[in-house]
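TEACHING EXERCISE
Course module: macromolecular assemblies
Task: Read the component lines below, then compare them to the predicted structure of the full complex.
Student: A.B.
Group: 4
Components provided:
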Amino acid sequence: MNAELTIKSAIRETLPTVFGYLGIGVAFGLVGHAAGLSPIIIFLMSAIIYGGSAQFITVSLLATSSPILSIIATTFLINSRMILLSLTIAPYFEHKSLTDNILIGTLLTDESFALGMNKLNYTDNQLNFPWLNTANLIAYLTWVMASLIGALLGNFIQNPARFGLDFAIVAMFIGLLYLQVIADKRLNYLLQVTVIGLTLGLTYLGLIIIPSSLLVLVVTIVGCILGVFFKKIWRH
Amino acid sequence: MSTFNYTILTILGCGLVTWLSRILPFILLKKFNLSETVLEYLSFVPIVIMSALWFSSLFTQHLGHLPTVNWPNLIASGPTLLSAILSKNLLVIVLVGVCSLGVIRLIAGN
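Instructor-supplied answer key:
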């Protein structure tokens, strides 16, 4: 990564992450197909909900014919971490038009968010519309196309888990996390490692009492509070 | 209601609530400013959310009981993290991760 905030640099920096989304997108298409959804429905789910891992839950609820409102509420809860992502990115676009803000928000996803956060370390804390919009668009198109490919491949592949494709997105987050830790200049290394360790503890304990649909959101809210707390202690 | 309508309505509803989660912070922040403390809080979001997404995949949940370790994912995380440190290249990291889990499942025979 470098300080350049252009469409070209966004394409160059987003392409490596495409494979993470490709893997999980294809896996989603395969799972949807196995649950009896048609390729067009799978395509529409990815294009309209654009919820990453949340869509796996939506599929399983659809397959059991759950009430519409309970599916919508569950999807909202799983995806409500998007509120935190948007809240973190939005200050960098405060001075831009409302339309630009809505466009950035509409296609923002974990992957482009993480890339954007990484980019800030190289650009003197700046982000702009062309760069993030391009990263967003690439992630979106990859997700939608990969889901469709998976749905069509579903006719030929019986047990998708066999190939380890479902690990693509976890591997991507491990990579993005490591790159973030070594690049982040706002938080020192020891503090970051401490917060990551605390997050592991919170996740473990959270799994006992918090339904998986809410786990990441609750852990993130509490983990960030602990982060602020430890930063204050170490400053004194 | 036909199955098709049921599915389409569900997708539209899920899409709407997810979209609102994405755009409302952008709209509200054009009207209000965030305090220094909130900004500091938000600076922890990237590492915490990415760690939480990773760590939650390392366990299998049994609500009300201790989670059990998801050994294949935990073992596959080793080479994945190592490849991150050595290559600093996302493409390499994802490929190593997928191949690691694929090999582990092949050996475990499921």
